[in-house]
Amino acid sequence: MSNKMRRIIALLVVLGLAVCITGCNLLHDRVIDVVLRNTYEMDFEEREDSADYVGDSEEIDVAEDIDDALESFDPPLDRDDITDARLLSASYEVTWLEDPGHDWEISGRIWLQYGRDEEVLVDYSGESLYDALGAGEIYADLNPSGVDLFNEALDDFRGGQDPILTFWMNSDDCTPAPSASDSLKFNWTAHVYMYVVSPFSLEVFDIFE
Predict the structure, then answer these.
(1) How would you class 178 by CB atoms within 10 Å of its CB: exposed for 0-12, middle for 13-18, buried for 19 or more?
(2) What CATH number is given for 31-202 in this structure?
(3) What pTM did the predictor assign?
(4) Strand pairing partners for 14?
């Protein structure tokens, strides 16, 4: 056994005796802020034969997803203890495209609805589906009004409500224009990232106290 290993074992023994003698006074309760990063993923299928289409919508249950994350701790974190929750970023990616022998360039908006309010979360323009296919996540610039609406839902969650958010795509233009004989067919996935801050109590071993 090396001298270094003997010193480590000796230190552990001394610390163990110190804990026993002092009645575990070396263990102290500390409260830290835990930052949880939550990701929502939504899958969409677009099958369009006109340039100004409105895609199908998807919903996310904010309360269910965040509550699940809080319950993963031991002991579970409480929703009432959350000190902050905000939208971080959003991205999209094209996961499948039926190739008609030419590219598609699309422009439009990704909308967010909460209650009776609707706001644009993302504006996109001249997006090449050829370029987007297989490119991974494309991070989008967020519209402040859409961010505010998302954060309003998070504030309501902290207040005890169970908000539901709805997302959909609205196309303003598509080049070339889709038709019944040349229809636009692709799948895409949206990711929404947010953070939740909550205090968490734990015991810290402090040998300097």
Answers:
(1) buried
(2) 2.60.120
(3) 0.78
(4) none
